[in-house]
């Protein structure tokens, strides 16, 4: 079964392998297959599920809600997010204004078929809305019982400090940040992680397998595998392009003997690697087929020894992205 970790310094526990439905539900796989995969996640002990209103333009939330019908609500941890537009992209359909936040939480609850979500997250930082307005809206949503906890996604260290201070003033907690993090993308380690540790916040990390590149299935100098994420624009192909350079793929192949040494598959090694970071509460994994989750959950509870971690670092050091300045380029400077 999957282990649990506390989210930040709260009393709230989440499964350290959390199911995310970003590029699968209502996009990469048919609805019946998506629902079957959610049921497999539950069978394997995953009780935490991450989605967002913008995924498949609201359809991903609807499918997750359908898949979880009949489950005991108290035994689930449901996360969703707000920032990106849904619908016609009107003047107030993007960002973290009070208007957009309240309309978004109400829409998400309706699609998910829930009275509340466990974690509501700011999908990006909004440079065009005063952060005081954003945090007040989140405080009111918590007081109304529509969300139990508040988190953010891809915020910089400075933004985390400012948001955390305002949340404290308004008598609620910021408990988490959701950044990209993998053995190939380590930009949060220098500033975001130490800041979060000091504030009592955890990371819920996305793309622990670097969009699948750390699975080892992409080979240097070879055609892209048919049906893979790299060949399907609906499956986030644009996000994987930066990892598909031959020098990156050659470095990743050096991990194969290390995975064998640890008795793990390459995907398990990648997921276990992010979970060695004590500030990481959960690694988000997706699946287009139920059996993929059977492999992923075996990374839960794995401890990688120091020599193995050092060997992984040595193999990937020439190609891993570590520059903390990359954290400042994620949130759009304008909503348009």
TrEMBL record:
Organism superkingdom: Bacteria
Asked if the record carries the keyword NADP, the reply is yes
- Spell out the Gene3D superfamilies in the cross-references: NADP-dependent oxidoreductase domain
Q: Which Pfam families match?
A: Aldo_ket_red
CDD domains registered for this protein in UniProt: Aldo_ket_red_shaker-like (cd19074)
InterPro entries from the xrefs? K_chnl_volt-dep_bsu_KCNAB-rel (IPR005399), NAD(P)_OxRdtase_dom_sf (IPR036812), NADP_OxRdtase_dom (IPR023210)
Report keywords, A-Z. Answer: NADP, Oxidoreductase
Q: Which residues form the NADP-dependent oxidoreductase domain?
A: 17-315
- Kindly give the PANTHER family that the UniProt entry links to this protein: HYPERKINETIC, ISOFORM M
UniProt record similarity statement: Belongs to the shaker potassium channel beta subunit family.
According to UniProt, the name of this protein is Aldo/keto reductase family protein
State the organism named in the record.
Microbacterium marmarense
Upper taxonomic lineage: Bacteria, Bacillati, Actinomycetota, Actinomycetes, Micrococcales
